Amino acid sequence: MTFEVTGGAYDRFMGRYSRPLAAGFGDWLELAPGQRAIDVGCGPGALTGVLVDRLGAGQVAAVDPSASFVEACRERHPGVDVRRAGAESLPYEDDSFDVAAACLVVHFMTDPVGGVAEMARVTRRDGLVGAAVWDLAGARAPMWPLWEAVARLQPEHPGERELPGGSREGLVAILENAGLRGVEAVELPVTVTHPSFEEWWEPYLHGVGPAGEAVAALGPDGRARLEEALRRRLGDGPFDLTAVAYAARGRA
């Protein structure tokens, strides 16, 4: 699995969903002028942009382990302190931020509890720590049509249902086990209109994330069968797809 792709490639794959999700997530984080916030696992900067809009670039930091994403985030959000780092070892002092947030990241952390605990470390006491993950266990992520079709072609494929934090209970447990207080969770739905089947399908051909990896592993014949099955399922377009994420937050 790789996220060492360009920011543009990731945007075509997930950005069409992560941008509206980041806006809703930002609303729920109770951002206020004067706060300092960090975007952990920023990717090309969907949530970073929301933080900048609400707080100003000088009040925002962002980290990601992918060099290409760090470069893209820096280019898109001048003035933001963007560094290459993983969630489990943040390059900041204790109590550096009022808000720490991770959007579509916890389930990919090497150590989710440790990563969220590190987010809490750099957040001041009573500051807010939040995370959002698609409802993977409930098959309500943006990739659900693809995983549904893959399951028919390769019933043994694990998909993403078992990734950590991919359910309300799982995400809440990660935050609680990281030592956060008063953890609560909500659902954040996102609906995207795809103008054509090709616009929806093409980003899956670049090996981005578990879904892209699964498509690549099928080989040419398997991909052709998968595309045919998905076109029958979705039609030529336009069509709407709705995805649902769980967002959880707690106090450091």
Automatic annotation (TrEMBL):
Domain Methyltransferase type: 38-129
Listed PANTHER family: METHYLTRANSF_11 DOMAIN-CONTAINING PROTEIN, METHYLTRANSFERASE TYPE 11 DOMAIN-CONTAINING PROTEIN
Lineage: Bacteria, Bacillati, Actinomycetota, Actinomycetes, Propionibacteriales
Keyword Methyltransferase: yes
Swiss-Prot/TrEMBL keywords: Methyltransferase, Transferase
GO annotation terms (biological process): methylation
Similarity-based family: Belongs to the methyltransferase superfamily.
Molecular functions (GO terms): methyltransferase activity
Species whose genome carries this gene: Nocardioides flavus
Protein known as: Methyltransferase
One Pfam family per UniProt: Methyltransf_11
